[in-house]
Amino acid sequence: MKFFLDTANLDEIRQGVSFGVIDGITTNPTLVAKEKRPFREHVIEICNIVKNGEVSAEVVATDTAGILRQAREIATWHPNVIVKVPTIPDGVRALSVLSKEGIRVNMTLVFSAPQALLVAKAGAYFVSPFLGRLDDIASDGLVLLREIMDIYKAYNYPTQVLAASLRHPLHVVSAARMGAHIGTMPYKVFEQLFKHPLTDRGLEGFLKDWEKARETLGDVFEPAPARNPTR
Ligand code: G3P
């Protein structure tokens, strides 16, 4: 499964990319608005940080003509930009046109299997079911993901399933078990994936034992080079 970070924060993106396991970024108007920077420049900067990764940037128009105009503009910003469009009737109409023009579209705010079926038929590049927001209203987001995976498999739709609104590591694991192509998660959830108390406790024990026997072990490793204080 590909890992995307669901953030527009450059520090989080740089930090995430440093691990070498981040395949792309998703943003939405709320996340971009938090950064208080010009939209176009910000998206291009994100693309340059994630290098070969795909970066979703969302339109804010809600009528077909406006969505088409904004989507065509966003698509020129960088070769790795994926245009995000809301799954409303005007959005699906725009998607049908954009997909024929070769513009890759991430259909967002998907909350039902019929919506996912519609966007696959209209040529979506990604479909983004929001798991956490369904859980928030006491509906099971993972049930929706299962339905989408089954339907897409039955018809071999090329649309990639991007599990979104992931709120905790178990969402990530469940999405991976179902074969979702991508999971997008906030930086906090990404950090949680690393954690296990037994890893920390185990390492602490290993290092304590090593120190206790230090003098008998020889100088195997070169000491770390001193840092240059002027840099
Ligand atoms: O970016 C779309 C989606 O992942 C939003 O997640 O946590 O705001 O429901 P959340």
CATH topology: TIM Barrel
Give the class-level CATH name: Alpha Beta
The ordered H/E elements are: EHEHHEHEHEHEHHEHEHH
CATH second-level architecture: Alpha-Beta Barrel
Strand arrangement within the widest β-sheet reads 1-2-3-4-5-6-7-8
Report the CATH superfamily. Aldolase class I
Describe the structure.
By secondary structure, this protein is of the alpha/beta class. The chain has one domain (2-192): Aldolase class I (TIM Barrel, Alpha-Beta Barrel), CATH 3.20.20. The chain is 49% helix and 16% strand. It has eleven helices and eight strands. The chain has helices at 10-17, 29-35, 39-50, 64-74, 89-100, 113-121, 131-136, 141-155, 169-177, 187-194, 197-212; strands at residues 2-6, 24-26, 54-58, 81-86, 105-110, 126-129, 160-163, 182-185. The protein has an eight-stranded parallel barrel, surrounded by seven helices. α4 links the parallel β3 and β4. α1 packs parallel to α3 and α6 packs parallel to α8. The protein is globular and about 75 Å long. The model has no long low-confidence stretch (mean pLDDT 97). SN-glycerol-3-phosphate binds next to α7.
Summary of the model, kept short:
The chain has 231 residues and is of the alpha/beta class. The chain has eleven helices and eight strands.
Write the SSE topology:
Elements: E1 2-6, H1 10-17, E2 24-26, H2 29-35, H3 39-50, E3 54-58, H4 64-74, E4 81-86, H5 89-100, E5 105-110, H6 113-121, E6 126-129, H7 131-136, H8 141-155, E7 160-163, H9 169-177, E8 182-185, H10 187-194, H11 197-212
Helix pairs in contact: 1-3, 4-5, 6-8
Bound molecules: SN-glycerol-3-phosphate.
